[in-house]
Amino acid sequence: MSIPRLILDVDTGHDDAVAIMMAAHNPAIDLCAITVTAGNQTLDKTLLNTLHVCSALSIDVPVYAGMSRPLLSPLVTASKIHGESGLDGPVFPPCNKKEEKEHAVVFLVNTIMEHPAKQFTLVATGPLTNIAMALRLEPSIAHKIARLLIMGGSMTQGNVTAQAEFNIHADPEAASIVFDSGIMPVMVGLDVTRSLVLTRERLDLLSQIKGPAASIFSASMEHYMAACLQYIGESPAMHDPLCVALAADPSLCQTKKYFVGVECSGALTRGRTVVDLSGVSQKAPNAEVALTIDEKRFWAMLEATLQRY
Ligand code: BDR
Ligand code: CA
User: Fold this and answer.
1) Is the whole-model pTM more than 0.85?
2) How confident is the model over 137-149, as pLDDT tens digits?
3) Domain with 198 in it: what CATH number?
4) Is the CB of 239 under 6 A from ligand 1?
């Protein structure tokens, strides 16, 4: 298998920052660009966090600012978990990186259209607003993308409401456009990401690694862990990094194709990904859902990431 040319779409909070570390300087990934959306915090903050991570770790790829709010609903952030800055914890040196002038959505459309089909893999670790806008601007990109991996959704319970996961809940209309587009995305949902729990012991071990990525990781995960324990009563999960890890190594998760609908109107279920496990709807599968994960290999990849810098 050839090395994926990757465009990473982020809303940089704590686990997005780790996803960026994992995608960059990785011999199994050719990271071409980063696009940013609002999500964990407002766009100005998620953009600044992205630029800080790239600047501090000499990640020399273009960064594009995208959508500052969801398609229809008002912006809801995850500031309780990710803090006022969206990446509370680490103290960054002065930032020496600037965003590109082009809008992220225009960049996505132009880049995908200007290249032969199936050149780019997209990994989305935030709300799907940028990708949905790109699909509306140029629907034919759906057939030109090699692969789209989405951190989002759940087959069972949610993490922001009883039924909905944050990235889908933040912009359900965008998610619905993406699942209906014909791309056949890989849904890397809470079903798999929640098993990647960063325990106290694991954080202490990883914090012993030397280097700039490990020290950003350690400072940011201390905040992330404290906030997750305070507000959701459990240690944090490595949601976004799994999506990048799976782009690098598709054998890390077992997946199965299902029809996945996004609930956009339910009073209690808005933002839920409804996975037709039994096929009762008789609708053709539109997504590949991650079902299992080789946890040991994931943690080894994370350790190797921190050691690389
Ligand atoms: C997702 O929500 C965000 O807060 C995280 O960055 C992750 O992308 C997990 O539900
Ligand atoms: Ca995210």
Assistant:
1) yes
2) 999 999 999 999 9
3) 3.90.245.10
4) yes
